[in-house]
Design goal:
Elements lengths: L1 E6 L3 H18 L3 E6 L2 H6 L7 E5 L7 H11 L4 E6 L5 H4 L6 E4 L4 H18 L4 E5 L2 E5 L4 E7 L2 E6 L2 E5 L3 H7 L4 E5 L2 E4 L3 E4 L3 E4 L2 E4 L5 H10 L5
């Protein structure tokens, strides 16, 4: 699931962008968790690297979007940043804060459909190191292609990689929400990495040498996720 922040002082503009993003997600099989923050100071004060994508309005009262972007970059050099503006003149300055793109207001579905694939592709690249595992008092960062599957085992959350197993506490739902779209929850106890699926049976799937049951009613969604991830034959 891609976590998106919209930093926009006009509620109507924020609601419009939210609706357009939700429509895009539904049409393209994506999952977005969208948060609206009405001013830049509140956004920066509460920022804890919890987003992969930030839409930032430039013209806001108080701390404007460009100033906020400079402060954001001091905290996070990798989050994908897209400016919202009614003036194209800010395009050059946007490069100073490594903005991926800018979208002119009022935002249209056509403009978003044109720009969003590139933006989302950048999010995928930047989030390759965002699987963070807290285990035994240590923090481990993995690329998605290093994590084969996650399962509940002996009251722990077990992360299985090619190099070994890490265990942590928490809920599988929290892990699911934090993982990118290349992961899919096949049953109540298991989340698999679609990149490592080697076989799909009538009611199970094999991932990195392990076979897991697919819950009733999730097979169709699972096959669709495989197709969208480019893993289906």
């Amino acid at each position: 699931m891609l976590r998106i922040a919209i930093v926009e002082d006009h509620e109507s503009d924020a609601k419009r962008l939210t609706a357009l993003l939700e429509a895009y997600a539904q049409k393209n099989g994506k999952r977005f968790a969208i948060t609206w923050i009405a001013n830049a100071n509140t956004f920066l004060d509460s920022y804890q690297h919890q987003y992969e994508l930030v839409f930032m309005d430039i013209r806001m009262p108080g701390l404007n979007g460009m100033m906020a972007a400079h402060e954001l970059r001091e905290m996070d050099h990798t989050v994908v940043l897209v400016f919202l503006t009614s003036l194209a003149q800010y395009a050059v300055e946007s490069y100073e804060v490594e903005a991926t793109d800018y979208i002119l207001k009022p935002i249209t579905a056509a403009a978003l459909d044109l720009k969003l694939p590139r933006i989302l592709n950048r999010c995928m690249v930047e989030s390759e190191e965002e699987v963070v595992i807290q285990s035994g008092g240590t923090t481990t960062r993995l690329r998605p292609n290093e994590l084969h599957y996650v399962e509940i085992y002996d009251h722990h959350i077990q992360f299985v990689t090619a190099s070994g197993i890490m265990r942590s506490y928490g809920t599988l739902k929290a892990v699911e929400d934090a993982l990118p779209d290349v992961f899919f929850r096949v049953n109540n106890q298991t989340i698999v990495n679609l990149r490592f699926v080697t076989h799909v049976g009538s009611n199970d799937t094999t991932v990195a040498g392990r076979t897991f049951p697919i819950s009733r009613g999730r097979r169709k969604e699972f096959l669709s996720a495989l197709h969208l991830a480019g893993m289906a034959e």
